[in-house]
């Protein structure tokens, strides 16, 4: 429930100061709610399964706030598993303990316990989301976080007739924790999902069990709608279309973009896209549809299609029109969509790109193998465990204390700060003849991070490799947005490729799909002290080690210093 009062502390009688403060915080409020996360028996694909869900729904609750509001969420873990909640894309300035990734910024909320997340939403308008950040629980524990302009401010585009949230998800006819644990036990890839979903439902096209609860969006002819599309799938990068309709992209990851027209949206897990849709076709029924963008060659995937229905008012037809989706491996379409976005520099939240770089990083990323272990049998390549790495460091989470608490209390032995700025071995990174070079594939397991000075500017080039196989990796940075300067295919050329950098109006995001067999250059300012996870948002790759973290030092002022943890902070 949205609070109707802003709590203010002010000296009695100083009326002018009070009025001035009120004017400067117009519309700011405290929004408070609770999540009860527990087992739920639900049916999909004509099968009943017990899942973990927030407040008895899949997806979980949509949180709606205005820019400048403070959000308080009491999370009660009534499930049988450890739990954390991550507020994907929220900066968490001065509230670093609320970011949520397990053993990065907090220890998990144990079954039967609770934790209250408190944070402010200033400087961001658009669509973010929240999800569990413990093992694979986010397959069913997730929901939207909608941030509207504060009172007196408007969208920089035509006011929509209505807003709708479209959450793309993934469904297993199994316990997802069991699926993950079974794969990790033997070092193999996990079983694929059985369906994709739109707002929790697979849709009509699954032959084993056509859905009788397909999500339907009712529209009025001639009206324009703002669709907030979120890819909450665990491992599926997705194409999304609505038959016979076009979109105008106006935002991504809660940052305004210059409007551009498209008939398809491409999103990796973790990404959000805001689009305007005008109901300008003949009144009827039209399928929304999503299916995978499969960038990896020769990998077996769930290649099914999930659907929902766009229904015009007073439509008389009974069979919806199905859109023609891109081919599963349509990398040119995916690249064109990702690279066409530019930032709306007239946004009140836009900051110019830093022109001076303090830290230059060139980071290879991809799959590999790690040692099976003594007296164990593994099913990965060469009889080893499947792994993943950045600059040949395969990340391992600590287990006794969170990295943020270790940073705050100066506890040694939890992580090392020796993550390299360059790959340890130089080779032809995207040459597929190297895909199964066992020497190049083998990676050590480390809890290795990069330490940064407060307010330093970091330029990082992600370099995809062909080890095991080339594929697009959606890389997500916690705690800060970054500018996407350029993207391309093949090996990054440090002499010629910087000439392609957009330093004027590059898109601003928290998650980027690094092109398959290619590279992406990003830049950001490390203006948020704490420990910030950076990782692949394909959850199959996260426990394999495709991650590291940035430890941003304190800045020397109270505002730039990590505050102490809250009183109810979970203990390990």
UniProtKB/TrEMBL annotation:
Keyword presence, Metal-binding: yes
EC nos: 1.10.3.2
Top EC category: oxidoreductase
Signal peptide residues on this chain, from the entry's feature table: 1-28
Reactions performed catalytically: 4 hydroquinone + O2 = 4 benzosemiquinone + 2 H2O
Major subcellular site: secreted
Pfam hit, one: Cu-oxidase_3
Keyword list, A-Z: Apoplast, Copper, Glycoprotein, Lignin degradation, Metal-binding, Oxidoreductase, Repeat, Secreted, Signal
GO biological process: lignin catabolic process
GO molecular-function term, one example from the UniProt record: hydroquinone:oxygen oxidoreductase activity
Keyword Membrane listed: no
Protein name: Laccase
Naturally occurring in which organism (per UniProt): Lactuca virosa
Record lineage: Eukaryota, Viridiplantae, Streptophyta, Embryophyta, Tracheophyta
